[in-house]
């Protein structure tokens, strides 16, 4: 009680000081009206700051309680990761890769804000309706991806110290066709995480992974197609083709990320454009995930690697071409050439965040993503957060409820806590990083309100969402 009384006295004195600075006048009425407003605002701000400190302390305690033995072992390894195969207790080649701790600075403080600021020029906004999400969690380590048709060799692996399963392409040559990348519309987004591990400084005839969009009549046909860079080879697949190639070779001036368009019916329309990717693909960055974000908007194709726009092809597709499928073509020449792919997210729907939120008063998105089991917002969420912030700032008098939802992995109680923490992380980010001053209330519903089946990775991805309700 004494502390509360003392705090109130300090707030009152501080309000007097603030008023003297903003109101150099002796008008009693101004003092009476403005003084009370300032005092109330300071009291509210002080209360909010105290609550945030309490929440932070509680979260710290909960994080410790929720930490699993695997998490503890992971942190004790200080970010060291190993690639594991399906053979128990073995790692391919015994590779051990040093990785920096993610999301923390040298003094142990969270660096989420710094990560988001890096993405300030990241204009990519994912499609709203998730058609497919594949993290290969349903595939056994050591097996081929069950939902892919392929001719080359690949297998599912995982890493100590790195989340999820990955498709591993080692020394191989072949086509890999995910069955869910079919009948692609005029507007869609495709995202995935890409890693590589090459013996830089040694010669390799080819270290390339090519993502191909085509109008081939039967997506499972021509699995013997050779997607090497020469136009003659490319024209053997179909009349219309657009590809994004990631090449790790250096003897041709690379590494490069290349966009290439082929129109077999009219060779004069063929072209390619290269982005020199030595800042992304280099010896120091191997086994570090690169988030690839691809957006098709009519004839236009944009490609981002992390926060960097690497390709923007305004005429990547011919008019009235119906894309029937996408495939990966991989050509690795030696045992030291390795690509890894995970977390494929295919979504449709042209984003219209502002109108949906302001006109309907409600907007739900799964494009705000978090690290697994964490409330740490992933940096590639910047684009959608900026759109939401712009919409809210255009209606500063309205309040908004931010509601977090999770999938069903884990216990009900932990998912409830996680959804609350994620909603609060979004609220805090909108306020601190984007300057949103609307009254924002954060809450969570855990796994209690699913919109899709939690029995599949795609359903889980749809259930991991954030809901915004204007009031």
Radius of gyration: 26 Å
Assigned CATH architecture of the largest domain = Sandwich
Runs in which pLDDT lies below 50 for 5 or more consecutive residues are: 22-26, 62-81, 86-111
- Broad structural category: alpha+beta
Q: What's the average pLDDT?
A: 81
Shape: globular
CATH class of the largest domain: Mainly Beta
Number of helices: 9
- CATH homologous superfamily heading of the largest domain: Exo-inulinase, domain 1
**Number of self-contained structural domains:** 3
Give structural notes.
- The protein has 471 residues and is an alpha+beta fold.
- It has 3 domains: 65 residues; 223 residues, Sandwich (Jelly Rolls), CATH 2.60.120; 118 residues, OmpA-like domain (60s Ribosomal Protein L30, Chain: A, 2-Layer Sandwich), CATH 3.30.1330.
- Helices cover 27% and strands 31% of the residues.
- The chain contains 9 helices and 22 strands.
- The strands form 3 sheets. Strands 1, 2, 3, 5, 6, 9, 14, 15, 16 and 18 form a 10-stranded antiparallel beta sheet that branches. Strands 4, 7, 8, 10, 11, 12, 13 and 17 form an 8-stranded antiparallel beta sheet that branches. A 4-stranded mixed beta sheet has the order 19-22-20-21.
- β11 and β12 form a beta hairpin.
- About 11% of the residues have low confidence.
- One of its GO terms (cellular component) is cell outer membrane.
- It is found in: Cell outer membrane.
- This is OmpA-like domain-containing protein.
- It comes from Parapedobacter pyrenivorans.
- Its main location: membrane.
